[in-house]
Every structure is written in structure tokens, then in C-alpha cells.
Amino acid sequence: MVDAIAAQRPSGPRLEAFFSTLYLSALRPEEAVNLKWSAVHLQPRVWDPEQEQWCDPEPEEDWGRLIVREVTPDVGKRWTDSGRQRDRRQPKGRAENESRPVPCSPRLSRILRAHRDEFGEGPDGLVFFGVRGHQLATGVYRQAWHRARKTVFTKEQQESTLAQVPYDLRRACVSTWLNEGISPAQVAAWAGHSQEVLLRVYAKCIDGNEERDKRRGAKGFEGF
Fold it and tell me: Which of 129, 168, 205, 220 has the smallest number of CB atoms closer than 10 Å to its CB?
């Protein structure tokens, strides 16, 4: 899906990093559209004297962090105090001035660096922005998503709920974290959920792993 979006012109190359961020960090779309470079903390590039150029850190060391501080849901001009298309709010489930740190994996760190190298910084320091230099519009990324579904999926898959909306990338990320055995408490903190909501919505993701979990549990007592 992301490759198919990247091939679209003119917006695709800019949207590749946007959709990758949803998938690799579980950000909500309204969180990602308002992500600023000041909230993206990446490891600095290192100088390679042999190649005489700056290079990305080694993958195992290339962890970063994203800070979710403010979201801009698309609610329509009629419903915002400013008269703009997007409202400005605290992240879901957060008090005023409270932020949410999210890990930035080495893969995502490389994607974001490449995105910054190619497109620079958007208005007000935004990471993602449209070809005309404005904040990324909901209609732009939704249309790109639907076009990619028609390109990648069979007719039967297109008629299903599989990857129906961009938000499903966030769901896929949370599901992957849970299936990898990361504690629900940690996943909830990263995703901005309460544990109660997380376990209720994603309960099926952690079913069917009894054999794996029994082996992991036993491994903790190997020294006894």
C-alpha cells in the first residue's frame, strides 16, 4: 500500500513518510498531520572519514522518539473557533499541556531523515505538508489511500474492510506490538489508550498465543 501511494504523483512521495509513520508508531492521522520537527528527536548523523560524508547511525543505535503534544482533527470550518478546517486540541485522553512520547524505530528514523532531506521543513515546522506548502489536507491522504487500495487489492479485497481507511495502519501497529509480546501497559502508553480500552478493542490480538507464552513464562525460571 505504501509503495503504491509513493508512486502516485504529485503527492505520493510526500505521503510515503506520512503513512509509514502511522504504521510504525501508531500515531492517529490527526496527530501525524500536526507533527512538528521540534517534536521529532532523532540520533545525529555521524561523519564517516573514509567516505568523507555524513551517514546515518548504525541501525541498532538509531532509535529516536516522537512527542505527541497537540492534534488537529478535521472538524470543518463551521465548528472551529478560528474558522479553519482543523481544530487544535490536546491528544486524546491527555490533560492540557500533557504530551505522549512514542518510540521511533530505526526504520522510521531513516524514513523521516530521508523525508526531511528531500522536502525540508513545512510551515510552522510541520513534518508533513502538501505540495502547495500548506498543512496536509484530509482529502489528499484519503484519496491517495483509496487509489492505492484499487491498485494493490483484488476486487474482493476492495469490497472487504481490509485496510479500509488510513487509521487501520495505527490499528495494525498496535496489533503488531501486542503480538510481539510487548506488555499491554506499555502499548497503551505508546498508543495513548487506557489499558481497559486497549484490551477490550485488541483482545483478539493476544489470543491464540498460549503455547508461546507458556514457553516464555517457563524461561523466566530456568535458574531454579
Answer: 220
Domain span at 145 = 2-161
Residue 168 located in a structural domain: no
Give pTM, 2 decimals. Answer: 0.85
How confident is residue 44, by pLDDT bands cut at 50, 70 and 90?
A: very high
Query: Which residue in 140, 121, 127 sits closest to 5, CA to CA?
Result: 140
**How many folded domains does the chain comprise?**
1
Is residue 16, in this structure, part of any structural domain at all? yes
What does the DSSP assignment read for 159-214? TSSTT-STHHHHHHHHHHHHHTT--HHHHHHHHT--HHHHHHHSGGGGSS-HHHHH
- The upper half-sphere exposure of residue 34, i.e. CA atoms within 13 Å in the direction of its Cβ, equals 17
In tens, the pLDDT along 79-114 reads: 445 455 546 555 655 556 689 999 999 999 999 999
Task: Tell me what pLDDT residue 20 has.
Answer: 98
The amino acid present at 52, given as its one-letter code, is E
